Please model this.
Amino acid sequence: MTQNSPIGSSARRGSSRRAAKSPAYRAELRRLAPYEAVARELIKIRLEAGLTQDALAQQMGTTSSAISRLESGHVSTSISTLMKVANACGRQLTISFSPIDPPSTQGKTPRAAQPKKVAN
Model:
């Protein structure tokens, strides 16, 4: 038997429940996904460099609250800022593009793959 936390559910479980109930919440999660991916990478390289948010902020000439916002995954940032983070962490910023996964067709044949009707 699984015991529930005395302070409620985890953030992940709470988010899953909200996503199941709200199309608007799901849309917002999709909108924020790229920012959260960047935030996870920023946190990863900062920790690998052995820096706190305060130390990274000092090296970049900004505030720890600005670093916190970047790492929240809820804000867009500039390439210039990403270059400063990379530099402060002893890294080089590399940007690449990859193909987009095709949207789910939910069992339907994509329009381009459907056979064309031939007139008799």
Remarks:
- The domain at 14-88 is CATH 1.10.260.40 (434 Repressor (Amino-terminal Domain)).
- The radius of gyration is 21 Å.
